[in-house]
Write a structure and sequence with these properties.
This protein has 679 residues and is of the alpha+beta class. It contains 17 helices and 27 strands. The strands form nine sheets. Strands 21, 22, 23, 24, 25, 26 and 27 form a seven-stranded antiparallel sheet that branches. It has a six-stranded antiparallel sheet with strand order 1-19-18-17-16-2. Helix 8 packs antiparallel against helix 10 and helix 10 runs antiparallel to helix 11. The longest helix is centred in the middle third of the chain and has 21 residues. It is globular and about 80 Å long. The N and C termini lie far apart (55 Å).
Amino acid sequence: MRAMKMVLLAGAALMGIGATAPAPSMDTAAIAAQRFDNDAPWYRDRIPFFESADPAIDAVYYYRWQVYRGHQRDLGAEGYITTEFFDDVDWQRHPYASLNDASGFHIGEGRWLNDRRFADDYINFMYGSGGNDRHFTDHMADSVWGRYLVDGDRADAVKHLPVMNHIYRLWDDKYDFDKGLYFVEPLLDATEYTVSSIDASGGKDGFRGGDAFRPSVNSYMFANARALSKMAEMAGNKAMAANYAARAEALQKRVLTDLWSDRLSHFIDRHQSKTDFVNYWDPIRNRELVGYLPWMFDLVPDDAKYAAAWAHLLDPASLGGKAGMRTVEANYEYYMRQYRYLGDAPECQWNGPVWPYQTTQVLHAMANLLDHYRADGPVTRSAYMRLLRQYATLHYQGSGKDRRLDIEEDYHPETGKPIVGLDRSHHYFHSGFNDLVLTGLVGIRPRADDVLEVNPLLPDARDSQALAWFRVQDVPYHGHKVAVTWDADGSHYKRGKGLAIEVDGREVARRDTLGRVEVPVARVATPPIARPINRAVQLVRGQFPMGSASSNTDAENVHDAIDGRVWFFSELPNGWSSAPTPAASQQYYAIDLGKPVDLGRAELAFFADGKGFAVPQDYRLQAWVDSDWRDIATPKGSPVANGVTDIHWTKRPVSKLRLLFTQPAGKAIRLTEFKLFEG
């Protein structure tokens, strides 16, 4: 170990015996109220709280938790899944609205929540309910392993091992046994209009076709094989562990031998298809951003030959756009040529535009390079922080009073303006950010053993990209709660300069400079997951439970209040919206469960914008009893706006339930979601 000023405090190995100055605990209730307003209760005990000397990064960090929360779709008895789009799209898995291509990001973000239900339910759906339909390539098994590195729950990590094994073997249909590599059509790699697909068409199109041996799918399958090997070993299946370890090793060798281009000094595609314009096994002619994905999974050896590839990312003439990372270098013949439209609106392409999807992947790859590679080539911590800030900036839309946070599908690499910009594009969960902050900027490097490792990827204080201070707390790790504080000169928190690590509220390690800290942390059992079941949710219109309303009775409008979706973003309407009336009026929304169900609690979520939508002046819940509506709960006052109102009553069998309310004059009511529980 290098000489450094680091103190591992007495008793750290036993977790929590050393007495130190009180930790600079953040007022999480106040922060939640400031960031999330009336919806603060959802976040308060769930998320890790973060603050830093860069308010833009802070704002995006909390916004991304709002994106995560909004994309949790309640399926009732099947639990929660994470969606990619708020709007339904034709290519989703119906009726759930699930897609598997961004599942790695969804699990990667969700693993940091103190409430483990959301990631757990999602994994259960993907492997236990057929959610992983292989519509797209993914690194889901590796992400399940990554979740285990955070929560340390062995049983959860291995419970779907047989299905993971089965799904992995299904990918043999995209495996070339002679070449020892996987191939895929770029569209099914979630990256349509790449060099391989455009060139396969002779530059005429590129939406379909262009199958290629790609760094992406082969890196994913390498990572999934390595994860399956580790999980199989943990489950005591030595034969499976050895098989997948051998698969990973063989795939790594083939990627290094066949997908590395000495001419381009980059990992590249090779054509798998033969057309009038390309031949089987020919390498593509230009560099693409996807060439950095092997580093995301530590597939690449620690060798200066490979590290030299990172120069292209930093080169304004190659992959380094002014506003973000280009998906193909600027000298490609069909760079930024727009082929596909929806009406007059540009559609998705990967021939140059900045995609948060791949930007996230490359920042993870860069973090690995900086954290544990000696041959890091031209990459520096300053460059990493510059690109992380550049990515954060893409989240901001508009200017002045209209400036707002809204992550969209893709962006122009020179202006940073959204390209696609369709209704479906708002608050698009096709990328990660908070996982980058926690594992890169803060530097928490989750491990399988009983060690907490922290290595913030910040440059020296004299660098223009330096960060003078930060703190994150309430980070779940192996059954504990962890906090990390950095204060370059000690002036912000006034408890000494440097890096400090806390576990369960007690400081266990400190050093006065940036650098790696490793602390023994004996894992403890994670808290059991609470799973109250929403009895009102219905994914398919026309089936029980079934909604009805007093106005605006369009079937889709009525159904949207019981579709399991809760968000309060103004760009996309969500829920049942009543018809406004000139005078105050009584309105209702009713749910017919189709049979008696024991119920004792409801959650009501209302959207209000200070304009056309307001919350009810008063409200009550009624049940259908003896052929009449009878009050079962009569709360005082109004429900909260843009948050959840909890209502309790004495549990009883109910077959029909109605929300009766007074609508303010000149306003409409938007009931975002109406949930019912046993109690």
